Every structure is written in C-alpha cells, then in structure tokens.
Amino acid sequence: MKFISKAILISLAIMLLLSRTSYSLFQYSKVHTKRATFVSESFEMGSGSIAAKTFFNIEFPKGHVGVKSFDSELVDEEGNPIPSFETYLHHWFAIKYIQNITMSDDPKLRHPDDFSFKRNEGMCNGNILPHYWGFGVESRGTTSNIPEPFAIEQGNPTNVPEGYEEKWLLNIMAIDTRGAEDKKGCTECRCDLMNLPKDFYNVTVDVHNQPLTTDYKGGLFCCQDNLQCKQIDGFQGPKRKISLRYTISWVDWNKHQVPVKVYILDSTDRITSNGSEIIHDCQAEYTIPANTNSSGDSPHVQKANIPMNKGGYLIYATAHMHSGVVNATLYAENGQTLCTSTPMYGSGNEAGNEKDYLIGMSICYPQPGSIKINDGEILTLESRYVNEFRTGAMGHFYIYLAENLPQ
C-alpha cells in the first residue's frame, strides 16, 4: 500500500463511493416502484352489441402516490386478450372524483355537493375530456410510462376536503363487430347501422344539451349501451363476458418525485372570448364529410388554436385517435413542432397486431427542459385522417407538463 500514490487512493475512494451510490439508487428504484394489475367488472356482449359502461370506485393504488403508468386492454373471462376485429375498444377513460363518506345509497337522499369530478388541467368545457388516462383501440401499443423522476401525483390528503374520499371510475365503450354487415361503420358508430329507437332524434341531446338533429350521422350518441349494430343475415355468434384489464405502476410520494400535470387538448376546441374571459367549446368528436373539395392523397385536417392558461416543461406527449389516422401534431406559438404522434397499423391476425387496425400511437419524450410552453401561449393542434367519410373521429392530444425540473 505504501507504493500507491495519494492520487490513486483518492480515485479508488471516489469509484467506491460512486458504485455504492449507483447501487443505492438501483435499490431505491427496485424497492419503491410498485406495479399491480387489476380487472374491471365484467359485462356481457353478443355479436353486434354495444357496451357503454361506467364502473365506480375501481381498484387504484392507495395513499399519497406518484403514478408512473396506467395501461389497459380488453380480455375475456379466462384473461385472454380479445382482438380488435372481434370487439373494438372505442375508448376507456379513468376519471377521478371525490365522494362524501356519508353519501346515502339512496339517490333521493343525496346532496348536490356529495359527489364531484376532479378533472385534469385541460381547458375543455364542462365535463368534456375530464380524465387522466385513457385511449382506445390503440391502447395495447401506446405506453403511458413517464420517465424518472416525474410522476402524476395522486392521493395528496391536503387536496381532499375533510369528510370526503378520493376515488376513481372507469368509462368504457366497446363494440362487438362479429358478424357485422359493416365493421368499419360500426366502429365509427354510424347511426344508420344501429337499431336506434324511433324517437331517437327527439329525445337525445348533444354536448350542449340541445336536441340532436338528423344532420348527426354518427358518433358517441349513436353508440349507446345495449344497442345493436346491423348484422349479416342469419349470423348468430356466442355471447361472452369481457373486462378491461389494467396495469398501474407507481411510487410512494416523496421529495424525490417531480410532479407533472395532465392536459388533454381537443382539435375540435372552438375558442371564443367574452371580454377578458377565454371560452373553450370542445366537441370531443367530429365528422369528416363525404364530399370534400380536397383531392388526391391530401388528408383531412382538423385544427384548433388553444391558449394555455398555465405552461410548463413538456415531459410526455401523444394523441388519442381512431383507425384511419394519418398523424396529429402540436405546434408552439412560434410554429415550432412540439410533437407529432404517428400511428402504427397491424399486419397479423392476433390481438395487438390486427391487420389494418390501429394498434398504437407514437410517444414524444423531449429531453427534460428542452421544450418549455409559456403561460398564455397559444398552441396549435392539428389532427389528420385519411380524407373519406368518417363519423365519430377524435383528435385528442395528451401532454404532461412539469412546472419545475429536478434539482
């Protein structure tokens, strides 16, 4: 040892310290990152049937946590993944709400303030797009994973009023297309393919609580629970019970976590103002008309210019779209491309790789700190689809913003 120089000893000491630190960080991540898989309540579907279900008080990590991912897929009673060409997952949304612990089971005895939704940071009006997580047919191939050390903070007791509990619900819409006369039309909820009641247009209201007109050719309102999509004559497929299986990863909240806020933007957002107040009017879905003036291979573009009340550093971005999507792009006010989310289409015959079906949307993970959206900045969102008649098209863009970066 007496022949080893002081410099070498210092170097060895530093290497030992670094190795211990790396091991310690590895152990920290290994011990504290948790992962669990849950299954929603099951519901029965037959060939051509529509299911639009809401399940309250779903299983969700308890306590003050930082959620790292929330992913899901449709499965049958045995837990086998169901391919999209049999049952099409139109969408699933995980929505937060708070409930008075003394709320009565009898609706007649409940008070207006016993229950309320706690929406994401997005600016859409009312209860449109209030969820924190949710995709559709692209779910299996679209990850919601957030890089370290960022997480979506949930269960903070200081944000829950005394006497209330924070809970979660799942909203699920699935379309069984086995034996469907027009599979594509069924997945787009074409009104003329559904067994709508005769007074449908007289009793159904739109997102503004106004009666639907016969100009409404398809979308969410024509895919109501227990309706039926038109079948090939004589086809009769077996009924089965299905569920949404979802996997959540999370960490217990601590000083090492950096919170991100969830914003869901909509390419149908019609921005107006009332003096100094900005008014958002999201439609959630739209129709691409049958005969447009565009020609050739030009996609149909749906565009919205959306002012951001509060900005932050962009950590994660992706789009929720339907089959036929070309891409979706979010631009900064100066025209810079913040993220383009592109589709992946299947080429096989198994769940997760269904030929010609949308199986995933790409994710943008900017280097933390490289993209900052300013308070009040006007973002431009463009969603592009193949230019053909399409109903119930969606152009939602998910962005996670961090107000601060890790120290």
TrEMBL record:
Q: Which domain of life is it from?
A: Eukaryota
Q: Which UniProt keywords apply?
A: Signal
The leader peptide range reads 1-24
| A Pfam family per the record | SURNod19
Question: What protein does this entry describe?
Answer: Stress up-regulated Nod 19 protein
High-level lineage: Eukaryota, Viridiplantae, Streptophyta, Embryophyta, Tracheophyta
